[in-house]
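Title: Prediction job returns without error message
Component: structure pipeline
Severity: low
Priority: P3
Assignee: unassigned

Description:
Job completed but the reporter wants confirmation the result is attached to the right record. Sequence as submitted:
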Amino acid sequence: MAELDKNELAGSNSPGVQSFETRDKRWRISTRKLPILKAEPIEQMNDRLGIPVPEMIFGDNFVEVEHLRSGWKLNFNTFDALNRVSKSADGMLQVAYSKEWQKDRQHHHQGIKEVVKPFDWSYSTDYRGTTHATATPQVQWETADKSKTPIRADLLARPDPILFYDDVTLYEDELADNGIAVMSCKIRVMPERLLLLSRFFLRLDGVIVRLRDTRVYIELGSRLVIRQYTAKEEAYDKVNATLTARRENAPEILRDPNRIAPLLRTVDDRLEVTELPER
């Protein structure tokens, strides 16, 4: 059993970082939570991405899982998540709200002289994490059958102690007061396994509700990493009508992605695995 030593939980030399290892020295889990970026780093990120960043940008935040014996890492960070946002008119939500958003964003970035170029202003991303494998370049993700290699929901439902938990926001935007777009990453570690959930949640009032989830599941005594990406969405009016018919509190539920998920259509569902070398 790969247990975590609570006494090893400590901040690293970098501000805002918590990092710890399993006792068998197989895994290290690290998170960082810092305040919203200031003006100069925001403009630098604008330039690097080629699009304006969201209203609340936590550009220094991340969640990372590292396999110490091979050097393999899976990292979830703000820049790479935003870099997966469409930078063309393809996939852009063609609604009147986008014009209001552009006016609002140009007000906040008056130093930007060029017109905001077409891009997915809802900040929808299919980001599934960034793999670093300099020590193990041969490691690849392979498509797997989720019926044969499932994320073990039965084991995750057990009342095992949670030895570490963190909830890290990467970015958030209220879309000119017409909804919300949030990218976040949660991780919880139990004595024998861990689960990471990276979630993009979009609610654009009168238009669409969207969830894009990446789950990473690891049995800590093994070298197998399971990653499942699931995308769901539904028209806002259809979801609202369903809630009204059920006489449920639509405004409250529409703010809660966990409660809204069962009402959305699954548009993508894929599972990948990678087995790491022992060194």
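Comment from assignee: result matches the submitted record. The chain has one domain: 6-275.
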